[in-house]
Amino acid sequence: MTVNIRARRRDVLVVGAYFADLVFHGLPQRLRTGGEVFAEGLGLAPGGAYTLAMAVHRLGQDVVWATDFGADPFSAQVLSAARREGLDEAAFRHHPTPQRSLTVALSGDGGRTMISFQDPAPPQPLSRLLHEHRPRVLMLPQLRYGDDMLAALQVARRLGSMVVMDCQDVPADLGTPGVREALALVDVFLPNEAEALHLTGAATLDEALRVLAEVTGTVVVKRGAQGATAVRHGERHDVPAPVVEAFDTTGAGDCFNAGFVHGLLAGRELADCLAAAVACGAAATAGPGSTTAPTHTELHARLGHALPAPRADRPSSPSAEGRV
After folding, report:
1. 190 with 256: CB under 8 angstroms?
2. Strand 12-15 and strand 63-69: pairing?
3. Contacts of residue 112, Cβ cutoff 8 Å, sequence gap at least 6
4. Of 312, 273, 317, 280, whose CA–CA distance to 299 is shortest?
5. pLDDT tens profile 213-234
6. Nearest to residue 155, comparing CAs of 135, 176, 141, 177?
7. In sequence order, what are the beta bridge partners of 165?
8. Which of 251, 265, 246, 256 lies closest to 299, judged by CA?
9. Are 14 and 56 in contact (CB under 8 A)?
10. In Å, how far are 147, 292, 311 from 61, measured between CA atoms?
11. What is the 3-state secondary structure (H, E, C) of 165-203?
12. How confident is the model at residue 75 (pLDDT cuts 50, 70, 90)?
């Protein structure tokens, strides 16, 4: 009898484009029109949804990443990095034409500015990916909505897949048709503070949290040097960020998300998931891009206690009690 190994349930399905991050770091001041500044350093690192997949994989989870590569040097660079990390290639699509995805990040004391470019590609049908890989957790790197997304999120719910969605500065708000409906089917929504304020139109973080908590299951707001805040069913947790000397914050938010999902898959409480997320995000700032995303052992050292290591005999799906 032939056994289809694809039929096994995966821990995490990440769906999203790669980006090659060209990072200028150590800028002494913000750029101004007509001016010029010199950076202290320059790096080219894989980013985008690669960071989510890589960071979750380093923490020991079984992850499959659905993305597109083309005949261009940026695709080649990120594909090579994915192979070095040992990422599963089952959901990679390869195109004979360029599939360029590039972000130029300008990072310094004045904050961070990013400029991106991406060649269009037809999306992989999310509903099909969900049926094929049956993930315990679906990770989406940006706010997505509309009829096709609603249908896919309903498939995820029927399959028992927990949906974890970032925001990523998408030009939409709760008044945009389809956004509320999509967030109502999301288990964990992870905007940063500026995105939460924009999305809700709120004047304060507390108000934004209240509004978002009425729409989606669990709200987790990334606050940079102030740490992070999570709200679920009226329960609020605030975790401060450790004091670190940040080299580059590019990719820190995605590593934060990976740490949170790692806590979920370990069956930990909301506060522990948030602490793991903050620790992973802080670790990622120690080097260019996401190159310093921690392993399970390194995360243990940062937390001072262990999250359970991933096991081969783990349950096939999150329990109803464990859904965040």
Report:
1. yes
2. parallel
3. 105, 106, 249, 250
4. 280
5. 999 999 999 998 899 999 999 8
6. 135
7. 140, 189
8. 256
9. yes
10. 31, 17, 9
11. EECCCCCCCCCCCCHHHHHCCCCEEECEHHHHHHHHCCC
12. very high
- What is the Cα–Cα distance from 29 to 249, expressed in whole angstroms? 16
pTM of the model: 0.88
- For 241-279, the pLDDT digits (tens) are 887 777 767 789 999 999 999 999 999 999 999 999 999
Q: Are 63 and 12 in contact (CB under 8 A)?
A: yes
231 and 271 Cβ atoms separated by less than 8 Å: no
List CB contacts of 113: < 8 A, sequence separation 6 or more: 30, 31, 105, 106
CA dist., res. 283 & res. 287, Å (int):
8
Pairing of strands 111-118, 12-15: unpaired
Residues 6+ apart with CB under 8 A from 104: 22, 24, 114, 115, 116
- Cα separation of 275 and 286, whole Å? 18
Domains of the chain: 10-17+47-98+123-303 (3.40.1190.20)
CB atoms within 10 A of CB 213: 19
Give me 192's structure tokens: 């940063």
Residue with tokens 């709120």: 202
List CB contacts of 230: < 8 A, sequence separation 6 or more: 218, 219, 220, 221, 236, 237, 270, 271, 273, 274
H or E element that contains 271:
helix 270-284
Convert 95-126 to b/e letters by CB count within 10 Å (16 or more is b): eeeebbbbbebbbbeeebebeeeebebeeeeb
